Structure formats: structure tokens, C-alpha cells
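Input.
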Amino acid sequence: LLLLAATLHAQKITTAIKLNQCGFYPHAPKVAVVTDSVTGNNFYVTTTNLRDTVFRGTLSDIKRSAYSATKTRTADFSALAVPGSYVVAVPGLGHSYVFDIRAQVHHNVAAAVLKGYYYQRASMPLEEAFAGKWRRSAGHPDNKVLIHAGAAGSQRPEGAVIKTPGGWYDAGDYNKYIVNSGITMGTLLAAYEDFPAYFRQLHTNIPESGDAMPDILNEVVYNLRWMLTMQDPADGGVYNKCTNAAFDGMVMPGVTTAPRYVVQKGTAATLDFAAVTAQAARILKPFDPRLADSCLKAANKAWQWALQHPALAYRQDSLNRIYQPVISTGAYGDRYFSDEWLWAASELYLTTRQEKGEAVWLQLGEDKAGLPSWANVAMLGYYSFLRSKDLPAAVSGTVKQMREKVLTLADSYMAGYRRSAFGTVMGQSARDFIWGSNAVAANQGIVLLNAYMLTREKKYVDYALTNLDYLLGRNATGYSFVTGTGSKSPMHPHHRPSVADGVTDPVPGLLAGGPNPGMQDKCSYEFTEPETAYSDNDCAYASNEIAINWNAPMVYLANAIEALAPKIGYSTVK
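Output.
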């Protein structure tokens, strides 16, 4: 024992032991993954001074990853339930980063990823009392936004000036996009609808904290009020985005002075808008009845516009051949609208119970809903229906089909879990590693949590937790992908304020995109295999940008597991 203690004490931190860098609940699964060769078969969990061994275990057999040359061995210490701060040590290799075992072990990261939206606010200064060292002046007042030639109409001709202040910057750039706000807002509103009691007590130190509205809804309202300004009051259509003609350089938002435009209205933007405002109308009614009423009126008006323009795509390249100035910022050019129709019809029906929404919903009940993304939002409608109560018999068959689809998808994730060399649901297929792969991981977790809420079977939460572990360090890169969280997190995200503010640490609470072997940014990558193709470099926007639609499922996943942990026994200290 003395020899073992001396051996472990002589070791140093190794990045070859991958684990959730925040830590673990006392009675939840606890796994670390070893990615370097070792001569022995034993591992140990010790106190942070490496002197007191609190758990001994045996490493699993070697497993070869399907998506990189990585070979792994698993260290399972789920039986350790004593709260404290620890490391995992492997003789001859080293020890892991420090982690905690305690109740509410994900509270800090859960609050941080929600507060990440505050740092993305446009048109208002971020004060030191709330933003700390990331304080900054207001950028982009957007009180003199021009109607682009491609968006001109009889009542709002080219060059007409409108006001569209507020909202969130979409990603690492300074533009604001309705389509991407759609899935973002829908996911955040769903988080509140599923866990209202939890979110009523979650405070994130934003200017509105302490008022009658939960912080998550205050943050949603900040973007919602911007979205409402993007609707043309004359006809109900919604402009696709508020944008510069080209991306700003790597400067602070208050520095930029380029003209801002709203561009062509589109069916995807208008239906996403209708869905969000209809969902917000029912959620906000107890807190702000007037705003809720305005949202419902806006949703109905957007619906009517969409009925008249059922398939109007925003085709930026085609528009640029006709109109000036050329717009080269993100297009979000969705061209398939059955999923937007399904989601908007769902939210309007659930808020109003009017037959027109029900009829459209029933027609679209066979839509191929899948893992949510900005281009496929049908599953958001499924989630809303499945959480709703007192539904009429007329929709019971459709809701049953939706339930079966969610459970089938969740069960497929569990069935393929063992294919992952890292013991996570994420990474069963090379298709998981796309642009924004970390949002894939988080959204897979949300599917599993919805399966839990349908069945109350704890196994679904256990599997969802593996993807939270993945996002916080148990992955082939060894990064905890949330800025400011864990011992090894992104320091150089593709995020203009983080690059330009003169502060060493990046803005906290932002989820990096994650491994992406497409590497469309043409930046230099040390590793290029699917699960390792990540570069912590601000030029690497294909893997290291941040985006509001990636943060949203992370908000849901981390906070939902925090909310459920005491209910399913994770947090009990015996």
C-alpha cells in the first residue's frame, strides 16, 4: 500500500484519462475512459493529494473506436458514492483532472449555458454587475435598418428604414436570424414547459433576475421582442434575417458601423415565427398577458401569410444575382417546409384548440420527424403534443404514433450504445460528427429524456447522462466543450467578442460546435478523423464556433438532468 501510494503520488495529470470534468452525482453512473496504452489492469480513485485511495477497480478490455484510431479502456467507479473531490489514477500513466462527486454537480454549468444568451444580447450594454470582466458597450442598436432590394414591397420600398433592435447575436458573428432563432426558442420554451418548478428557482444574475418571471423566460422574451419586429405589419410575413451585407471582422460589436438590412420574407422563417409566438403565447400568459396576446395575434397573422406563400424559399445565391448589395452572411436557406408546417400547426392548435390547426396537424401526422436541427423542426411539435394534457380523442391516434416514434428513436440510441468506444450514446455513427456535432449529442439526450417522461423508466436518463458526460469531457478530444467549464475547455472559440475583448478567458457558457471532419473552414487541424476533428482555434469556425441553436439543447440537457437528479435518486447521499 505504501508503494502504491508513493507510485500514485509521483504521477502527473494526463489528458489520456477522459471523463466528465464537472463530476458525478453520488448515485449516478460514473465512468472514465483511458486512451493510452497501459501495462497493468488496475485503476484507482484517490483524493486530490493522491494519498488516500477511496476506490479500486479493474480496467475493461481494450476497445477500438470505429471513428478514429483511438483505443480505449473503461474505468467504471459507479459504486463510489461518497461526496468529495477526487481524481482517477492509472499506474504508469498519470491521473485525471480533478472532479467532484456531489448533489447538484451540474448546477454551475447548467446555469452558465443559460446565461450564455445574456452575453449574446444585441443593442444593450453588458454591465459589470452582470457580465463581470466581459462587460461591453451596446452594439448594433438596429434602429435604422434598411429594407433590402430583395425584400422590397409596395408599403416598404427598397431603402425604407425600420427598427428591429434587441435579440441575440446568432453565433460568432453579429447577425440575427429568424430561422435559427426558431429552433433555439422552441427548445428553450420546451425546457421551461417540461420543468417549470425547477426553472422558477434558477437564477443566473441577469438584469431581470428577481422579477416575477423566471430567468429562462426573461432571456427568451429578450429575443422574442426582436422577433416580433421582424414581422411585416402589413401582411404578416417575416423577414429571414437582420444582417450586414458581409460578416464583420473580428472586432467588438460596438465598433461596427456597416449598414444593416432585413432580407426577403420566407415560408420557413414565417412558420418558425408562428410556432415560437404561439408557444410563447400560452407560456407567457400568466406572466405578461399583454405580450402573450400580442404573440398570439402575430402567430395567426404569420399563419395566414404562410397559407398564401406555402413554399417560398430564401435562395440567397439566386437573389444575389438580381439585387444589390450582395448578401454573403449565413443563409439558413431551408427549402423543405413540411416540418415547419407541422410544428407551427402543432403550437397554434395546442394554444388555441382551433380546428384549422388540428386539421393541418392531422394531415401532416406522418411527417418524417427526426433529431431536431434548424432545418428539421418537426420533432418540436411532437414534444409539445406529448407533454400536453386533456387532448381530444380526435388526435389520440396521431399522438400515439408520435409517442411510439420518440420511444423507437430513444431505444435505437440505447441499442447502439455499446458500439461507442467512449460509452456514450453520441458517436454510434459517423453521421453524428457533422457541423454542430455537439448539438447532435445534446439533442439525442433530449430525445432520451422525453422517453423517460413518457415511461418514467430511469434507464433513459442514464443514457442521456452519457451524452452530458461526452460534452463535458468524455470524448476523443478530451475537451469539456463549454467555455469556462472544466479543466480543459475551449480558449479560442470562433466568437468575435471573445477574440476582440482583450480578456484572456473567452465569454463563458458557450458550447463549441464540436468535431467536424468536413473542416469547411480550411483551418489547420492536428487531428482529422471524425471524432477527433476539432481545433481550439478561432479560425476553425467549422468546429469551434458557437451558436444559439447549439446552446439551447445544452441548456435543456444539463438543466433537465439537474431537475430530475433528486427525483430519480442520483443526488441522494446515504
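The first helix runs from residue 2 to 9.
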